[in-house]
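Practice problem 4.
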């Protein structure tokens, strides 16, 4: 007892120091865990944002939906079989899902690819006991064969005993088939054009370069091979000897790095893949060291000073993480919007593409019907466009489409919606516009197009157009009806001599 009394002050001071040290150490551990938890949450949020952006990138690749294209513009053909094949025979797309990924081994296809039979010619055969007319239609880009469409049509209803030349209906079917194949070819080449302009590795490299904390983004397959990465030099490398299933801080290139691994099926839907995200953890380590030093120093000062200092450091780190997260999410949003615009735009004319055009027509039609507002639709078709291609070449035809599209776009109002429907057809949706105003606008377009030739190289190409107009009516129940009327008016304009505007008129019985 006397010892305690004698050394009471020392005991109190030692107890106080031990208590403050313990509380400081405890506070240090709590703050460290909170920082690590916040970093984990932020890294997962960043990984989710990156995964979303890459998912939208993959959506662009999937725009080559040939089955839907065939359904949309099949010309009511009795399609018996449909495949999209690589030049080596690999089936990339098929109406029979179980065929995808396999190799086509039919005798006719092998003979065709060996040169014994010709591509792009119709032939007749029996498939599954059904008489069909078939064709292997080649798809080229830059004069290089990139794919082949295998299309078969049921012709059992036709009498082939008299031969093809004496069967006009069958010959007409061949014209429809070729038109369908041209549309498929355009869809494939347009999708490839988008992919050639946008590479996912370049996209990830630019994404990483625009951030301060992310150092690497990679996609890894089940064998731990890297096949997508922001660092192109890593593609093809294996991480078996340097791979950890758990997320956490490790040293990469002598720098503290936080590694996040999340399950992903971004690139290959048939395999399990992981998205591997590397984040610079220098700031975290720096903050951790600051917490430890502060805890040691404040153990000799006061408990409250230690807690206050730790709290300030903690909230500073959290605020920095929050701001960085917001900045990264904003960047991902911008990149995502850019990719969405690409998926809605026609690559040749920079007008809206057919899919987005139909979506907006359906929306404006519903609005006009609900509120009983005016709505007009005009279809613009360039006169004798095939002659332009035949006379001056397809490059000249493309330039004509670009310049004419630009003129139409410049002459329209901000509220009008302009898109390329296909080939040389351009559709203009005119909300809140009656028939009289629509005719004035159409005549203005006629004048803008016809008064100034298109200059291409050393040629001045005179271009005229025919325009069909229709307005929404009470009897219209769906947007396709007003579009069909505009198309019929366009047909009348061409029949009456072209270079004119025609309005849909109900034919008298």
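Answer key:
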């Amino acid at each position: 007892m006397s010892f305690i009394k004698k050394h009471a002050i020392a005991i109190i001071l030692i107890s106080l120091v031990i208590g403050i040290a313990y509380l400081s150490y405890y506070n240090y551990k709590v703050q460290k865990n909170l920082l690590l938890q916040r970093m984990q949450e932020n890294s997962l949020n960043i990984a989710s944002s990156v995964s979303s952006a890459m998912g939208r990138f993959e959506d662009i690749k999937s725009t080559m939906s040939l089955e839907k294209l065939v359904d949309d513009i099949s010309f009511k053909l009795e399609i018996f079989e449909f495949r999209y094949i690589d030049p080596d025979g690999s089936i990339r797309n098929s109406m029979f899902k179980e065929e995808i990924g396999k190799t086509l081994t039919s005798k006719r296809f092998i003979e065709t690819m060996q040169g014994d039979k010709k591509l792009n010619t119709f032939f007749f055969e029996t498939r599954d006991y059904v008489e069909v007319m078939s064709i292997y239609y080649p798809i080229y880009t830059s004069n290089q064969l990139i794919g082949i469409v295998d299309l078969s049509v049921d012709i059992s209803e036709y009498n082939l005993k008299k031969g093809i030349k004496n069967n006009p209906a069958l010959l007409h079917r061949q014209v429809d088939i070729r038109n369908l194949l041209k549309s498929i070819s355009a869809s494939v080449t347009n999708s490839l054009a988008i992919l050639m302009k946008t590479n996912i590795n370049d996209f990830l490299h630019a994404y990483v370069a625009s951030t301060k904390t992310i150092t690497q983004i990679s996609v890894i397959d089940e064998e731990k091979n890297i096949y997508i990465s922001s660092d192109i030099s890593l593609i093809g490398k294996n991480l078996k000897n340097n791979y950890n299933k758990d997320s956490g801080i490790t040293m990469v290139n002598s720098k503290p790095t936080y590694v996040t691994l999340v399950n992903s099926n971004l690139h290959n839907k048939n395999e399990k893949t992981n998205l591997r995200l590397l984040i610079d953890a220098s700031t975290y380590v720096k903050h951790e060291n600051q917490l430890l030093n502060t805890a040691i120093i404040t153990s000799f000062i006061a408990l409250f000073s230690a807690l206050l200092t730790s709290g300030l450091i903690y909230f500073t780190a959290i605020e920095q993480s929050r701001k960085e997260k917001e900045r990264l999410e904003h960047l991902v949003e911008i990149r995502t919007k850019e990719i969405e615009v690409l998926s809605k735009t026609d690559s040749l004319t920079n007008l809206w593409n057919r899919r987005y055009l139909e979506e907006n027509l359906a929306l404006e039609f519903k609005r006009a019907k609900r509120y009983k507002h005016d709505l007009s639709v005009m279809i613009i078709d360039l006169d004798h466009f095939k002659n332009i291609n035949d006379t001056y070449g397809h490059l000249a035809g493309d330039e004509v489409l670009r310049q004419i599209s630009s003129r139409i776009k410049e002459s329209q109002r901000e509220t009008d919606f302009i898109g390329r429907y296909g080939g040389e057809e351009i559709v203009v949706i005119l909300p809140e516009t009656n028939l009289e105003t629509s005719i004035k606008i159409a005549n203005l377009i006629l004048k803008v197009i016809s008064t100034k030739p298109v200059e291409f190289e050393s040629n001045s190409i005179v271009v005229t157009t025919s325009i069909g107009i229709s307005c929404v009516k009470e009897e219209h129940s769906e947007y396709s009806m007003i579009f069909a009327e505009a198309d019929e008016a366009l047909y009348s304009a061409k029949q009456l001599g072209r270079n004119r505007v025609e309005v849909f008129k109900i034919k008298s019985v």
